[in-house]
Amino acid sequence: MFTNHMFGLLYHPRDEWNLIKRERPGSIASVFVRNLLFLALIPPVSLLIGTTQMGWSIAGGDVVKLSMSSAIPMAVAFYFALLVGVAFVAYCTLWMERTFGASASFERCLIFTIYTATPMFLSGFIGLVPILWLDVLVVLAAASYSIYLLYSGIPIFMDIPPERGFIFASSILTVGLCALVGCMAITVILWGMGIAPAFVG
């Protein structure tokens, strides 16, 4: 069912949001296991393979690869960062919904966050071919569609007026951007402490 909704959101998002809204989300554990745990594997595993087997080339220069010993911990950290990030945005959505007069459980907020982020998770496949300009274009396109799903889905899924849904969606987007900046800051701090990737070749 998740796969059907995932592709439905790509072709007719508004109709699909109405279908998702009428479903029972299940427990938090089932939502994580059935949906997020596997979906969040796509970007780190793809980047692990791409950066260690294919290598990076900036502007057609020498190809640089990550060593497997440094790539695996980075992929694991990236995976857990994705899980924590989605849970954090879902919790913030639950907290904000009370302000906007919506009524939804944490499970529903988690489902909404997962479906909204699905294009970005799927764009992780491009990490198998780590060409910088191509990766940037694909991720930007996926991020743009995720933002579209956010703004089109909030009024339907949370059952609030469109004008309030716009403010709600903007608030969620701000939370997501703050979480992203926070992850980048943590990465910079870790690299500054000497926990940096090792390159080969």
UniProtKB/TrEMBL annotation:
Protein name (database record) = Yip1 domain-containing protein
* Origin species: Bacterioplanes sanyensis
Domain of life of the organism encoding this protein: Bacteria
Q: Which UniProt keywords apply?
A: Membrane, Transmembrane, Transmembrane helix
* Protein topology in the membrane: Multi-pass membrane protein
Q: Does the keyword Transmembrane apply?
A: yes
InterPro entries from the entry? Answer: Yip1_dom
Q: Where does the record say this protein resides?
A: Membrane
An example of a Pfam family matching this protein is: Yip1
Where the record annotates domain Yip1, the positions are 7-181
Parts of the chain that traverse the membrane: 31-51, 71-94, 106-126, 132-154, 166-191
Which cellular component terms (GO) are annotated to the entry?
membrane
